Amino acid sequence: MKWTILVALGAVCAWTVPMMAKEAPSQQVDSGSFGVFVNGQRVATETFSVEKTGEGSTISSQVKAEASSDAVQKSELKISPAGEMLRYEWHDLSASKAELTVAPKDQFLVEHVSTGPSDKPLVQPFLMPSSTMVLDNNSFVQRELLAWRYLGSACKQEGGKTQCPTAAAQFGVLVPQERSSMSVSLQVAGREKVKVKGAERDLLKVVLKQESGDWNLYLDDQDQFKLMRIVVAGNSTEIVRD
Predict the structure, then answer these.
(1) How many angstroms separate the Cα of 47 from the Cα of each of 30, 87, 114?
(2) Which of 50, 68, 160, 189 could form a disulfide with 30 if both were Cys (CB 3.0 to 4.6 A apart)?
(3) Domain limits at 52?
(4) Structure pTM?
């Protein structure tokens, strides 16, 4: 049986099963916040929402540092029902007022970057398709979206269990804040008992391999495959859903 998370649970974004775009005008796919901890100390919070309509999906994020009320970043990603990027915007709301946008043009993704109100915008094209995933700095909901795309494209359900190939799946991603692209891979690494909010949970483990190292993503396949926890290998950093 082919993978049908969206049909069965109403929880995976429109690119997994585009035909579901004809459903209700607006559907809250996921929302909440992630706490970012370094050496056990909370250093930032990402508040996010994922909303699906007949016109596609909108993924909104706000990241705020604990040490300063002025250190705030906002982003919004719009995706078509077929999973194509329509537009990505990122804004630094601190004193720098830096901002950027990414949108498809012809066969390229084109990024416009402004480092301040009086600076001339920089323009950088990427020879990448509009189906490319955004994996920007400090946005963990985008890691959830990438995991959903991986599960939707590479895995299936049999007997109520998640079945995925042993080989890793490769994805090209864009990192707008760094004005760069890279290749990452995802692979299911079984199940693991993980503490979330003081309670032990049996979660699906997906390993995200990227240039900076491995990120272990823990998803709850009993609750719409929501991302519950991330452990960044080797640097005492973890991200936990509040």
Answers:
(1) 11, 20, 24
(2) 50
(3) 5-241
(4) 0.87
